[in-house]
Amino acid sequence: MKLFAASLTLLLGAALYSAENLIKTDPGQLPVTGTLKVIDAENGVFKAGKGRLNGTQLIAVDASKSYRLSGFFRGAADCGRVLMGVQCFDGNKRSIGMHNICTVAGTATVLTSAAEKGSNEFFIADGSSWEKIPGKVAVFNCKDDFSDLPNHNTIYYVTKVEKSGEVWKVTTTKALPRTYPAGTAMRLHRDGGFINAIAFVKPNAQWQEFSAVLGKAQVNVNVHKNLWPGTAYVKLFINIYPGSEVEIKDIKLIEEQ
User: Fold this and answer.
1) CA 178 to CA 163: how far, in whole Å?
2) Residue 235 and residue 54 in contact, taking contact as beta carbons nearer than 8 Å
3) CA dist list (Å): 206 to 32, 42, 211, 225
4) How confident is the prediction along the chain (257 residues), in pLDDT tens digits per residue?
5) How many CB atoms lie within 10 A of CB 43?
6) In the sheet where 67-75 sits, what is the strand order?
7) What residues contact residue 188 under an 8 Å CB cut-off, 6+ apart?
8) How far apart are CA 231 and CA 125, in angstroms?
9) CA triplet 100, 161, 192: central angle to 5 degrees?
């Protein structure tokens, strides 16, 4: 029995560590744009200074699953910090931003009349919660169950909300790119960036592995710990902050078992 248990442990361990790296690399190459020096092509060691390394590979993922992003880094005492994460894309390969997914609770309402293309004003049934939180993103064609996420029917920024008779008048900084009919469901979203940054690290003189898990997509949870709702693809993102150059190797994205 003990021998069986030990064998099972070894087999499970092997399965975990043999999981496929979804980041496809050739010897001496890392699929990113940016200034990247090859230090050791055979062993896949690179060096980069201040700046962004944007992934060029669109990696298919399943938003109902979790993934681990990892890599080894080292550098001198004055080297720059490293930010590592992914950029999320939907099934149409459109980039997903925080403004597409970060809903603001209690702001659901509807248009009381058509919001016309070219206008930066529209009228909603209830703006009492909108009035208290200016500077958000107005979102159209919403659904109560959040199945509309990521929602790309957005308009920047709500600058003014005021009562107008029995309804509420909303003013935005940008004009509407299309017309939305009366009765269209709406809500507010928070703005933010396009990068799901899951690891912020400071390398030292020895190779260190840094890793973090991207959990399955969920609505209104920590956006830096989970895939974003509607994610079908991701791209690698690494940012090196000011300081001396950082060495990089073994960047992996692996499905959690």
Assistant:
1) 24
2) yes
3) 24, 20, 16, 27
4) 443 343 333 334 444 445 899 998 877 789 999 999 999 998 899 999 999 999 999 999 999 999 999 999 999 999 999 999 999 999 999 999 999 999 999 999 999 999 999 999 999 999 999 988 877 999 999 999 999 999 999 999 999 999 999 999 999 999 999 999 999 999 999 998 888 888 889 999 999 999 999 999 999 888 888 999 999 999 999 999 999 999 999 999 999 98
5) 10
6) 37-40, 45-48, 246-255, 67-75, 208-214
7) 103, 104, 107, 129, 130, 133, 136, 137, 138, 139, 158
8) 32
9) 25
Which amino acid appears at position 218 of this protein?
Answer: Q
Instruction: Give the integer Cα–Cα distance in Å for 227 and 60.
Output: 12
Q: Read off the pTM.
A: 0.88
Peptide bond into 31 cis (omega under 30): no
- Count of beta carbons in the 10 Å neighbourhood of residue 257: 11
Q: How many CA atoms lie within 13 A of 56 on its CB side?
A: 8
Q: Give CA separation, 95 vs 30, 73, 98, 151, 233, in Å.
A: 21, 28, 10, 11, 9
Exposed (0-12), middle (13-18) or buried (19+): which is 158, by Cβ within 10 Å?
buried
Using an 8 Å Cβ cutoff, are 184 and 110 in contact?
yes
